[in-house]
Structure formats: structure tokens, C-alpha cells
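**User:**
Make up any protein.

**Assistant:**
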Amino acid sequence: MKIIDRRSIIIKKKIIAAAAIVVMLILTAVLIMINYPVSTENQQSTESMAVSDVQQNSEQSAEFNFVCTDRLCGCPETERRTTPESVEVVFFDIGTIIKEYVSEKETVSEEDRFGEVSEKVINGMLVSLKGDGGKVLLASRSDNGFKYTIRINSSDYAVSTEEMTDYIISTR
């Protein structure tokens, strides 16, 4: 009889231990759900949520709104740097798009770096295009007291005039 009692006691202890583990797992799940509720409305990927959070926070620190393409040369936005006077959107190490108040100070010309410099009217805006080999690396324009600059960092990622035109049109 002692053997049966010992076995039943061991089995009872195992059942109690298993039940305790199940109860703790359920409590843990409930606490997680309370602290991190799941929203089924407007679910977005975490990447787009992070980008929209960054965009919203950066626009709050700038004194103006800024809209631009969500991808430059196929790469998504990775960072926004803002001041009350400017917003700079970074796309990995591919390039940047900047909107800033037009400065009274003279800006340094980058024409010497580029073999080809031209101006083109796009949607009624006079745009300066700079690049090499028929590809564009830098576009800039001024409008309503702001300067807009789209810069591609490497000739490996230089774009056609048509592609740069799309970036220019989407930037305001």
C-alpha cells in the first residue's frame, strides 16, 4: 500500500505543478494583452508605423509641413532630421530630400562637381538639374520661400530625368 500511496502522491504533485504552470501562462498572457492591446483597425506593418511616427514627430518640430516620396531609388525612408527651419529625409546611404527656408546667406555652388548642369520647367517650377552621363544626381528648386533639394549620393544610384521629375513632383 505504501508504494501505491507514494505513486499517487507523486502523480498528484505533478498534476498540481502542471496546473500551476498553466495558470501562470494564462496570467502572463492576460497581463500582456492588458498592457499591449491588439488593435484590428487600420493595421499597418511595423515599418510603415515607424515611418509615420517619425514623420509625425518630425513635422511637429518643424514649423511647416513636408511631403515627399516614400522611396528614393527604391529605398524606403530611414530617418528624418528636423529643425524649425528644415526637414531632411534620409534614404539609407542612397540620398536625401531636404526642404528648408530660403536663406539670405549665399550658398556654395556645387556646379563644379557635375559635368552636366541644366534647368527645366517642371509643373511650372524652374528646377536646376545636375549630374553626369545623362543621369541626374542633384535637383533643386525654390518655391514660396522654401528651397527643395533632392540629392543622390553616388553615381551608382543616379536617376533619369524622368525619374527625378517624379521625385520633384511628389515633394512639397
In short: Residues 46-169 form one domain. The mean pLDDT is 81. The longest helix spans residues 2-35.
